[in-house]
């Protein structure tokens, strides 16, 4: 598969008893296919992968693959801070039918750059499935340097892309500049997707596209074509919604939005909790201003 365009980091819907709502999941996946996004990440950060057991993750991935039925690629979030566990999940995800895996940087234990390299190489060596690095220092507490990412891309033929959410534009440009041909840099932040595309990135792994995939896809497509004026206009039209989707810790706002739009219940697993009432009002106001609720209703 090509790692470019708009890849949605899909939420995981829960029922009031905290079990996974597979009926709602099917609705979400069908909506993504209808909006023509390019792939889905299942059980990532936005999918509350941290709150899922290993067996739940694999079932969720397998059911997503079944629902997608070859119409859209499924990327499985299999990264943990335990290398052996990440290897096991990656092998299981491949068997479940995932077409690639997304591997968040090991969180909490803060390895050195050598440790990060060995962690990712061990996962890449366990299976031929394409790997996407996921650099998000704000959550993991560790940055995967540009040099380490480029080295991994050069040494491991199945490390095909990186989701860069460091916010460090200089670092991201270094990766774009020095990575081997065929390695894709994907924005991990909706708000800087267009600037990164203009610097050579190939797309975004997006939160916003959970509910606004079609317009985001249009922006990304225009940017990749070099139609800067059109892409820039779309970027600013999307800016408020990009920002409101992070008014609290992701995925709290996006799941609140999807609940308001009728796709799922607003249920989280602890330690995540629902939106504060003040932020809910701000979120609703943004949806009304952008005619999202009226459009759905």
Structure description:
By secondary structure, this protein is α/β, with parallel strands linked by helices. 50% of the residues lie in helices and 12% in strands. It has a single domain, classed as Aldolase class I (TIM Barrel). The chain contains 13 helices and eight strands. It has an eight-stranded parallel barrel with strand order 1-2-3-4-5-6-7-8, surrounded by seven helices. Strand 4 (100-104), helix 4 and strand 5 (131-135) form a beta-alpha-beta unit. Helix 11 (252-260) packs across helix 12. It is globular.
Give me a quick take on this structure.
The protein is an alpha/beta fold and 297 residues long.
Largest sheet: 8 strands, parallel, barrel
Please state roughly what percent of the residues sit in beta strands, choosing from under 5%, 5-15%, 15-25%, 25-35%, 35-45% or over 45%.
5-15%
Task: Record the strand order, biggest sheet.
Answer: 1-2-3-4-5-6-7-8
Helix-residue proportion: 40-55%
What name is given to the CATH topology? TIM Barrel
Terminal CA distance = 35 Å
Structural class of the secondary elements?
A: alpha/beta
Radius of gyration of CA atoms, rounded to a whole number: 18 Å
Overall average residue pLDDT: 96
Task: Provide the number of structural domains.
Answer: 1
Number of distinct beta strands = 8
Regions with little confidence, pLDDT below 50 for 5+ residues: none
User: What's the CATH architecture?
Assistant: Alpha-Beta Barrel
Overall 3D shape:
globular
CATH superfamily: Aldolase class I
What is the number of helices?
A: 13
Q: Secondary-structure element sequence?
A: EHEHEHEHEHHEHEHEHHHHH
CATH class: Alpha Beta
